[in-house]
């Protein structure tokens, strides 16, 4: 618990962390509002015969918010290596697995808090523009979890690579390039595979409230794919972190 | 604090093909300042990292109070370390840097303010660390080491880049910490930095132990039976004393160092030959000289001694 307190203090005392948390909220609300607003004028002339998945649309902002969370996660470990502070950190908390668990928990708490604010603000803003159909509980919770998992993905990559820039590039590649590939590839089989097994489109099935039977992957298993990436890399990072000289 | 020691036993560590530490053993006793000296690249930092559990040794052990660092429940209360004073996040305030360290051990915030005052950083610590001078970083690093009031201290090159006032401050602090009964290990690649500060010296070269002795012994051994004399007639004195069986070294424009002849004999010879002498006395070696003698074979980047030796 003490090492968690230390890691929380470490994050809280950096201005860049607060900027990134604010960016997560602003980007999510702004993109969500834009997405919902574009629908009102084009596809949904009246709320009654609107067949769009409005809840999913209002949470579209996750596509931008996740970038801020990724950077946040990367910085939480990357800055330790770039400044050399990792040695001070390890003299204070010599049990490396405990340190990594504390870091992951502190990061999850902060991104989780920002995620809750961002999701609630996105839904509230969307509701001002359009009525939302269906239950928002699963999409809302899932989106918050999604942001937390992306931050953990950043932490894992930074732990593995020990370099901020390299970890950000790998993370962005995983989140944005893989979904782009799905559009470039003409083979429907491969498109389907990527939509199911790439972390980002798969995880966002958690936001769907309509046509659940036609999703490439069901909501919770979809989020599970992202969780598998983040936690799998975290375990790999933990093993290497425990063995390497600091 | 009697069992608070650092014990290094047969420590070995290699990085790729380079052997950084090669079978090193030594002990740091409580109540003493132990200087850890060696040329750059001798393995000092690697040894310190091994003691702190940061690098895993290939062989041997490094124990603190009988236990490996990674087994310490509250390490900051048992060992205070300064490894790299520059290792600070530039946008975090100095005080916040100590706060997270304090939180990792459940120490109260007033302890942070206490150590900041002790190192004279109470005002500067409210600013972001990016704007600190090297001296301020060193002081903050020392405050971090003192945070848990530990019985063992490990400081890697703490005077590096400090101004004379800062160096004096660290010396006084190290003396006081040892006088309080703590075991203090302080590394340096400059022997002169440890003069008047260290009680004991552990000298290493190429990862091996060269000497593990009390400073007083080391100085006595290096001083030998040398006599130092000052004369305007350097050449006459040199030739005369060399002829009489002394080994004479020119140490300065007007000074000579003589070995192999007792002081009385030298004075007698010089006055018989009417060689003017302004000063004669037994020579007291500096720590630097003692060190040069010890490391002559072990230094990786050696330089020739500046005295020319004349033997009969």
Please provide a written account of the structure.
The complex is a heterodimer of chains A (246) and B (312). Chain A is built from eleven helices and no strands. Chain A has one domain. Chain A is an all-alpha fold and 246 residues long. Chain A is globular, with a radius of gyration of 19 Å. Chain A starts with a helix and ends with a helix. The model of chain A has no long low-confidence stretch (mean pLDDT 91). Chain A has helices at 2-12, 15-42, 54-58, 62-83, 86-92, 96-129, 137-161, 164-184, 188-197, 199-203, 219-243. Chain B is of the alpha/beta class and 312 residues long. In chain B, strand 9 (200-205) and strand 10 form a beta hairpin. Chain B is elongated. Classes of the chains: A mainly alpha (246), B alpha/beta (312).
**Rg calc of chain B:** 24 Å
CATH homologous superfamily descriptor of the largest domain in chain B: P-loop containing nucleotide triphosphate hydrolases
Low-confidence stretches of chain A: none
Number of helices of chain B: 10
Extended strand count of chain B: 15
What count of helical segments of chain A does DSSP give?
A: 11
What is the structural class of chain B?
Answer: alpha/beta
Helix % of chain A is over 70%
User: How many distinct beta strands of chain A?
Assistant: 0
Per the principal axes of the C-alpha atoms, what is the gross shape of chain A? globular
Q: Tell me the count of domains of chain B.
A: 2
Sketch the major β-sheet of chain B: 6 strands, mixed
> Oligomeric form of this entry?
heterodimer
Transmembrane segments (chain A): 59-79, 100-124, 136-158, 165-185, 220-241
Organism (chain A): Streptomyces colonosanans
Pfam family, one (chain A): ABC2_membrane_4
Protein name (chain A): ABC transporter permease
